[in-house]
Amino acid sequence: MLEKDSIIINRRVLAVESVFTNGYKSKITTTNGIHYSKMSVLELLNYACMRYASTLEGRMKATREILDYYQKTPVLIKPNEFGAFPTLSYKNIECVWIFNHHFSVNELGNGKSQIVFDNGIHMTVKASKNVLLKQQQRLHTAMNIFSKMENSE
Fold this sequence. Notes:
Elements: E1 13-21, E2 24-30, E3 33-37, H1 41-50, H2 56-67, E4 75-78, E5 82-86, E6 96-99, E7 103-109, E8 112-117, E9 122-125, H3 129-151
Antiparallel strand pairs: 1-2, 1-6, 2-3, 4-5, 5-6, 7-8, 8-9
């Protein structure tokens, strides 16, 4: 049975990141507020992918094979609806997964940037503005290509 917290991972999620406080392992920022989970970020993403008949590794492998994105691979959790991209290597504890919502980026220096979502929610991540915009573009490219593949059948 899929873990209950993974249900929070849906099209309203803005970002998911690791935290280590009060027994929690992840912080889920959504358009409805912030939620904490005792599951790790990768566990949450894996169970969310399983709700749509795959795994996190399966989704990454598909994107890597079709689009040749081998570093910081975006993931289509529910193809044609929502996905996310990592700000760093997904194995890095400081990696934040940013979901497909509109945002702007303010470069802060020292390899950090502030992401500002259209609803005003903002967060600081360890990634340059250039990396964030490139990753956002990769996610949207993946979503477009998989959508075209599905619609051509």
